[in-house]
Every structure is written in C-alpha cells, then in structure tokens.
Amino acid sequence: MGFNNAVAHSLDLRTRIVDAVDRGVGTISEIAALFGVNESFIYKLLRQRRERGDISPLPHGGGAQAKLNEDHLMILTDLVAQSPGATLEELRERMKKQARVEVSVTTICRALQALGLSRKQRLSDRRRLIR
C-alpha cells in the first residue's frame, strides 16, 4: 500500500488481533493477513498496549479547526431551506452576512455534503455547465 490509510480500527478488531497474537495463532505477518491489516498496525497496537495499558483508538491528533461550528451549520441549513436554488457563492455571501463567518465556496460545498443537503440547481446553472 503506497498511501496512508488513516482508518481507526474498531476496538473489537483490535481485541481480536491482540488475542490472536497472545494465543500464538501465527506470525505477525500471518495474523496481519488474516485480519486484513498491515503488520505495522499490529506492532503499533502491541506497543500501545505495553506503553499505555490499553488498545483503544487514540484521539485525533489535531489538524485544522473547523471553520463552521454547529451554529453555523444550523444557519446554513436554514439558508438552503429558504433558498434551495441559491448558488454556492450566494450561500457563502449569506453566511458572511448572517453568521459573520468568512469561508470559501469549497467549505460551503463540503458542509452541504456533510449535512446531506443538496441544492436545487437552476436551469441557467445547468446550461452554463453544458456549454
């Protein structure tokens, strides 16, 4: 695998893997293949158990703070309900005025996707895409 597969494996899977290692079901390589995980994940899991005393997934390591909080998302939901034909740019402008938060069109689009909301696309918007 040539990419970082940042998946938090369930506690159940982690427990079964550690149990298989403890019971000597096979080599680390064989156990990794059996459970469909990388060998490095098993080594990290065993090190975490040794150092921390548990195997539960660690909290998210950080990253950028979300620009739209719960209140912002509620406002965005209301804006879409009020104007289902609004463009992303129009929604961005309305968020700037109503919520006093300045974000990109991409952030608005991702927020709508995360909320499971879709905008009704105006016919004029569709025609622009076709040309």
The amount of beta strand, in percent, is under 5%
Structural class: mainly alpha
> Main sheet, how many strands, which sense, barrel?
none
* Low-confidence runs of at least 5 consecutive residues: 1-5, 125-131
End-to-end distance, in Å? Answer: 40 Å
User: What is the radius of gyration computed over CA atoms, rounded to a whole number of angstroms?
Assistant: 23 Å
What's the shape?
A: elongated
Secondary-structure element order, as H and E?
HHHHHHH
Q: Count every helix, treating DSSP H or I runs of 4 or more residues as helices.
A: 7
Tell me the total number of β-strands: 0
Q: How many domains would you count in the coordinates?
A: 2
Q: Name the average pLDDT.
A: 85
The helicity comes to 55-70%
What does this structure look like?
This protein is mainly α and 131 residues long. The protein starts with 10 loop residues before the first helix and ends with a helix. The chain has two domains: 11-52; 70-130, no CATH class. Helix 5 packs across helix 6. The chain has helices at residues 11-23, 28-35, 39-52, 70-82, 88-98, 105-115, 123-130. It is built from seven helices and no strands. 8% of the residues are buried.
Question: Could you name the key traits of this structure?
Answer:
131 residues; 2 domains; 7 helices
